[in-house]
C-alpha cells in the first residue's frame, strides 16, 4: 500500500469520529433535563432504611408487610414473638373483627380468626358483655317496673302485667288502656289531720262531646294516694278505706238477704277471684257480685251489681279433707264490669315474681267488711289493715292446725291487727313500685287478732298457672308456675 493511501484512510477516520462526537454532544443536550424538572416528572416516597443495605438492617413492619405483601415467616421475623405475630397475622389476613366495636359496657375487644373475644369488666358477662350480672331480681327488683325474670344464660329481663307494654328501655311498663290493672284511678289529698279527705279525679281535661274520640290529655294520669292515719280501728285494728282506694275489692252478696257474706277481687272485666269455702253454701244463681261498694248502708252511685255465669273451684279443693287447703275459686260474670275509678282490676304476676314480692315486702294490705273484733259486729264501711309476712317456721309453730305449703301467715303476734270473719275471699295485695299485685286471699284464722296467732292466707303464687289457664289472662306461663 502506498503512503498516500494510508494517509487518506487516517484522515477519513478522524473525519468520521468528529461527526460522531458532534452528534453525541447534540443528543446529550436534549436528552437530560435539569434536576428540578426531572424530579417533577417522577416522585417516589423514600422507603424505610433507604440508603442502607436492607439485608443487614433489622426487619421493619411497614417495609415487610405494608409496602409489600409478607408471609408468616416474614411477619414472625419482625415481631420476634409468636403471640404478637399471631395477633397481627389474624387481622392482617382476615380483617379486624373488632372494628365495629361489638363489645359493650367498656369491655376490651380482642380480634381472632373470623371472630372476636370480649374481655368483660367486673359485673358483666355474655358474648358482648351485654348481661349485667350484678343486676339481680332480689335487688331492687332488677330495675324492673313490674315483673323481673332471672335466667342463668340471659341474666335479668323485665316483663309487664297484662294490659301493659314494655318500653324500649326494657324496664318501664306503659298502660295500654284507660283502666290498667293495679293502678288507682283517683287522687286523694288529705284535707286536714282528721280522716276527712278531698277526692278528685285525675283527669285534667274536660270530657269531650259524645261521638268525638278523646285525646291523650283526657285519660287519667297515674294516681297518687295521700292518706292520714285515723283512730277508728276497724277490720280489727285497721282503718276505713277512702272511696276508690281499693277499687278491686268486691263483695259477694246473698240475693235473698241482700247482705254481703264474703269478699273477692277483680282480675278482669269478666273474672273475680275469691275463696273456695265462700261458695260452699248455695249455688251461683243465689248470689251476685257487687263492685264499687264502700258503705253498705248507703247508695253512693259507684256500685255495680253483676250476675255470675259460672264458678270454678280449684280441682284440688276438698272440704272433707280440709276446708281451707287450695282455698281458691274463680267466678265468671255474665257481662263485663264497667270499669271506673271505683272498680278496677288488680294485677296478677307469675309464680316466682309473686312469691318474691310477698316475702320481700314488709307490709301488704288486706281489706273487707268483716267483723271489727272476734264475734263482734261487721263494719258497714270497707276497712283495710297492713300486715307483714311471717316466716314459715314461725307461722307453722303458731297453730295446732295444719298449715300447708299452699298457705302463708301474715299479721302480728302481739298487736291487735288482723282480718276477721266476713273478710274471707278478700284480697291480700302487695305494691311493686306504684302498681298493686294480688299476693294472697283471706282464708282463715284462729279467732281474730289473738295474741300469738296470725291470719292465714291462700298463697296465690301457687295457682298462677291454673288462674291463667282458666281466665285466659296469660303472660308466658311456664312449667315452673304449676302447683308444687
TrEMBL record:
Known EC number: 3.4.21.22
Protein name in the entry: Coagulation factor IX
Domain Gla: start-end pairs: 48-94
Domain (Peptidase S1) ranges: 235-472
InterPro entries: Coagulation_fac-like_Gla_dom (IPR017857), EGF (IPR000742), EGF-like_Ca-bd_dom (IPR001881), EGF-type_Asp/Asn_hydroxyl_site (IPR000152), EGF_Ca-bd_CS (IPR018097), GLA-like_dom_SF (IPR035972), GLA_domain (IPR000294), Pept_S1A_FX (IPR012224)
Reaction catalyzed: Selective cleavage of Arg-|-Ile bond in factor X to form factor Xa
Class in the EC hierarchy, top level: hydrolase
Active site location: 277 (charge relay system), 327 (charge relay system), 424 (charge relay system)
Primary location: secreted
PROSITE patterns: ASX_HYDROXYL (PS00010), EGF_1 (PS00022), EGF_2 (PS01186), EGF_3 (PS50026), EGF_CA (PS01187), GLA_1 (PS00011), GLA_2 (PS50998), TRYPSIN_DOM (PS50240)
Entry's Gene Ontology molecular function annotations: calcium ion binding; serine-type endopeptidase activity
CDD domains per the UniProt record, alphabetical: EGF_CA, Tryp_SPc
GO BP field: blood coagulation; proteolysis
Keywords: Blood coagulation, Calcium, Disulfide bond, EGF-like domain, Gamma-carboxyglutamic acid, Glycoprotein, Hemostasis, Hydrolase, Hydroxylation, Magnesium, Metal-binding, Phosphoprotein, Protease, Secreted, Serine protease, Zymogen
Pfam families the UniProt entry points to: EGF (PF00008), FXa_inhibition (PF14670), Gla (PF00594), Trypsin (PF00089)
UniProt function note: Factor IX is a vitamin K-dependent plasma protein that participates in the intrinsic pathway of blood coagulation by converting factor X to its active form in the presence of Ca(2+) ions, phospholipids, and factor VIIIa.
Location in the cell: Secreted
Cystine crosslinks: 120-129
Species whose genome carries this gene: Anguilla anguilla
Domain annotation EGF-like: ranges: 94-130
GO cellular component terms listed in the entry, alphabetical order: extracellular space
Amino acid at each position: 500500500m502506498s503512503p498516500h493511501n494510508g494517509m487518506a484512510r487516517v484522515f477519513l477516520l478522524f473525519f468520521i469520529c468528529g461527526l460522531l462526537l458532534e452528534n453525541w454532544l447534540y443528543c446529550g443536550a436534549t436528552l437530560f433535563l435539569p434536576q428540578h424538572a426531572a424530579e417533577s416528572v417522577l416522585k417516589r416516597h423514600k422507603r424505610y432504611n433507604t440508603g442502607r443495605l436492607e439485608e443487614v438492617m433489622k426487619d421493619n413492619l411497614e417495609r415487610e408487610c405494608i409496602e409489600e405483601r409478607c408471609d408468616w415467616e416474614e411477619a414472625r421475623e419482625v415481631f420476634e414473638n409468636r403471640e404478637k405475630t399471631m395477633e397481627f397475622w389474624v387481622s392482617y389476613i382476615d380483617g379486624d373483627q373488632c372494628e365495629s366495636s361489638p363489645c359493650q359496657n367498656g369491655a376490651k375487644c380482642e380480634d381472632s380468626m373470623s371472630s372476636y373475644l370480649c374481655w368483660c369488666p367486673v359485673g358483666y358477662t355474655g358474648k358482648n358483655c351485654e348481661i349485667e350480672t350484678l343486676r339481680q331480681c332480689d335487688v331492687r327488683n332488677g330495675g324492673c317496673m313490674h315483673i323481673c325474670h332471672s335466667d342463668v344464660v340471659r341474666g335479668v329481663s323485665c316483663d309487664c302485667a297484662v294490659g301493659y307494654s314494655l318500653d324500649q328501655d326494657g324496664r318501664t311498663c306503659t298502660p295500654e288502656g284507660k283502666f290498667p290493672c293495679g293502678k288507682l284511678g283517683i287522687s286523694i289529698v288529705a284535707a286536714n289531720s282528721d280522716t276527712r279527705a278531698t277526692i278528685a279525679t285525675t283527669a285534667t281535661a274536660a270530657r269531650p262531646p259524645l261521638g268525638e274520640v278523646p285525646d291523650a290529655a283526657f285519660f287519667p294520669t297515674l294516681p297518687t294516694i295521700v292518706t292520714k292515719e285515723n283512730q277508728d280501728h276497724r277490720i280489727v285494728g285497721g282503718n276505713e278505706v277512702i272511696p276508690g282506694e281499693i277499687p278491686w275489692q268486691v263483695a259477694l252478696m246473698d240475693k235473698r238477704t241482700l247482705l254481703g257474706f264474703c269478699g273477692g277481687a277483680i282480675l278482669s272485666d269478666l273474672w273475680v277471684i275469691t275463696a273456695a269455702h265462700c261458695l260452699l253454701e248455695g249455688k251461683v244463681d243465689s248470689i251476685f257480685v257487687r263492685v264499687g261498694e264502700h258503705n253498705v248502708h248507703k247508695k253512693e252511685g259507684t256500685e255495680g251489681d253483676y250476675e255470675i255465669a259460672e264458678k270454678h273451684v280449684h280441682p284440688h279443693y276438698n272440704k272433707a279433707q280440709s276446708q281451707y287447703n287450695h282455698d281458691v275459686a274463680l267466678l265468671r260474670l255474665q257481662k263485663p264490669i264497667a270499669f271506673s275509678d271505683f272498680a278496677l282490676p288488680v294485677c296478677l304476676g307469675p309464680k316466682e315474681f309473686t312469691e318474691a314480692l310477698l316475702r320481700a315486702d314488709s307490709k301488704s294490705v288486706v281489706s273487707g267488711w268483716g267483723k271489727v273484733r272476734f264475734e263482734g259486729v261487721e263494719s258497714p264501711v270497707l276497712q283495710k289493715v297492713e300486715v307483714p309476712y311471717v316466716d314459715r317456721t314461725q307461722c307453722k309453730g303458731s297453730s295446732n292446725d295444719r298449715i300447708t305449703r299452699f298457705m302463708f301467715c301474715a299479721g302480728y303476734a302481739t298487736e291487735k291487727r288482723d282480718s276477721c270473719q266476713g273478710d274471707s275471699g278478700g284480697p291480700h295485695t302487695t305494691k311493686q313500685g306504684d302498681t298493686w299485685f294480688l299476693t294472697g286471699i283471706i282464708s282463715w284464722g284462729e279467732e281474730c287478732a289473738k295474741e300469738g296467732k296470725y291470719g292465714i292466707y291462700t298463697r296465690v303464687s301457687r295457682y298462677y298457672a291454673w288462674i291463667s289457664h282458666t281466665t285466659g289472662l296469660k303472660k308466658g306461663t311456664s312449667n315452673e308456675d304449676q302447683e308444687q
